[in-house]
Amino acid sequence: MVTSEPPDEKRQHRRFSVQFRSSFSSVNIIGGEGVLADLSVRGCRIESRIAVKAGTELQLKIHLPYEPVPLGTVAAVRWSRGETFGVEFTDIKDEGWKRLGRFITSVEWPDAGATSCP
What we know:
Helix content: 10-25%
Strand order of the largest sheet: 1-2-3-6-5-4
Low-confidence stretches: 1-5, 112-118
Order of helices and strands: EEEEEEH
Number of domains: 1
Shape: globular
Number of strands: 6
Mean pLDDT: 81
Distance between the termini: 53 Å
Radius of gyration: 15 Å
CATH class: Mainly Beta
CATH architecture: Beta Barrel
Number of helices: 1
């Protein structure tokens, strides 16, 4: 279902407040950029000066912190309001899922990789 407003709080996956660069393109948009926010394993919210309509399919690049190569995915715009829109990831390759999962785990459990000292 495509809507022009954010959906009610029926989230299946926890969202994490983040703020980093994203870039996107579609048939009608070349070189779109925005700030990615509210990331989950299935989608995110993007703030951009580029108007994007609900129903648009985007080639999305997520510039994860501390990673030299952006994570690429196809994403469907599910809602759009002003300078903000929400997308659902529709096609991420296996390595992309792993990278996204590692990043979300690092946000959810920031001390998971830390070692404790006596």
